[in-house]
Amino acid sequence: MAIVSSGSGAAPSRLKQRLVDPAPLPGDGLALGPGDDPSPGFGTEAAAGASAEVPILREDSLRPRRLADYIGQRELKQVLGIAVEATLARQEALDHVLLYGPPGLGKTTMALVLAEELGVRCRITSAPALERPRDIVGLLINLQPQELLFIDEIHRLNRVAEEILYPAMEDFRLDLTVGKGTTARTRSLAIAPFTLVGATTRAGALSSPLRDRFGLIQRLEFYGLEDLQAIVVRAAGLLQVDLDGAAALEVARRCRGTPRIANRLLRRVRDVASVGGHGRIGAALVDEALSLHRVDGRGLDASDRRLLTLLLEGYGGGPVGLDTLAAALGEDAATLETVVEPFLLQQGLLQRTPRGRVITEAGRVHLALAEAAA
Ligand code: ADE
Question: What pLDDT sits at residue 148?
Fold first, then answer.
């Protein structure tokens, strides 16, 4: 697995992502081949009370590798499954794919699954790492036929990088300017037919010329309870955590419709279970462990409740503008909008109106219940 050095300028975004999501980030310029483990490596630790060494499974090792193992997102799997099959039959590069939706729903995972299905490598980078023209040119020139290039946070690409991408996506060609001033010339360079997989939490922030060059544009949805429960059961099996069906359902209920959060909560439950010397984990232990982490029965965490409480108590329920809310909470407005709000909106606890954010009746009821339970 080759790690190529990343560009600068990624720090604020990566820091923010770390704060909202401690899962490992895709390495900038990380290249994964079919069959490679996307985790940076297996550590070893002595199993408690046993002499054998067991591998520590990183978050990435919980990712499904193939479409058949990928739980949920039925429509997405169906559309991409057909595209992959047709592409393999034609022996061409898959059409460019844009995946959008809230964080943690499996955009990176799906890019890796696509590469596995196509039997090619996937190069992973993110837009803030492609600051200089040579960053993106270097990646494009080194692609092998039919390989995938995954660009996370693609809405953050700068103009120059975007313009390099247009002919690359359309005609597998790089238009490079050689020389300066009056002697400057444009040279065209053929590159291998490849597939760009772009991921974004903000499809609306993509420029339309870039968006129009994707042949497949797919939204990832929050997962339903049944799918989440199946994801928790699968992850528990991989992590060798013994939990019953009701416990898996309880984790599913509290993970904000997001597999990445489900896996994170599962680890916290595992910690509490192992410290308390519990055997099989049941729903009551999940409740105890997640209450400790201030995750309530509906999956809202402290920052969700802080936002709803501020709306209700600070502004009489709203409407309040996003920037005002962000400033009062000491949060970045884009993080609020793309990370915190989508689940609250989907749950009907919050509404976006032309005049600002408003707490709903369900939001008021939920806060009252959460307060009573605290
Ligand atoms: N782990 C995280 N996301 C998953 C998914 N969609 N299917 C199976 N396991 C997962």
Answer: 98
